[in-house]
Amino acid sequence: MRVPALTVAHYLDQRHYLGAAHRGFAWSDEHGVAVFGHPTSRRLPQDGTWLELTRWCLEGERNGGSKQWAAITRHLKTDEPNVTTIVSYSDPSHGHTGALYKACNWIWAPTWHRLRPPPSGNGHWIADQPESVKDRWIFPLRRDPRRAELLYVNDDALLRKDPTIGYHEPKRFAGPHLHSVRHGPELELGSEWQQRRGAP
Fold first, then answer.
1. pTM of the complete model
2. In terms of pLDDT, which residue wins out, 112 or 92?
3. Which of 14, 129, 177, 189 has its CA 20 to 30 A from that of 22?
């Protein structure tokens, strides 16, 4: 069920490596806890149509994550009609492979920093502790004509090497006014791109 984020703060402090999240709202059930807030990135909509999944802490039950996510999406589709998109980030430096996101049908949407990691990492929140570059994931709930453009990989050199990288809008949400998907022969950039996209 949906609850205030502060009600699950102690749970997350005890169980999640980042601790509690103090903004937004939470979903709590027998499978664990998820916390949502406005997107951290200022490049993403701040008008309430996009939410960021900032914490996801599960009890460890088999298929618990997919069961919980199904319940959350039912709630969002029914009770949050203005929300079109959920964004979240996984941290490979902490061993997060994105397997849970892929199992729940999220779409890998790499940032430019993920595709071209800067020498300094992803900046610094704490002095002398560079942040690792994260994997970004998207779960589209409803059609949003801004989404493909906002997530587009604006790097011609990368797209020439592999036109398939980056976010691709699901066909059920795509329309003629959306940013066109660039097609071309799929070139080898290593198996990671295919794994992130969920290809066999």
1. 0.79
2. 92
3. 129
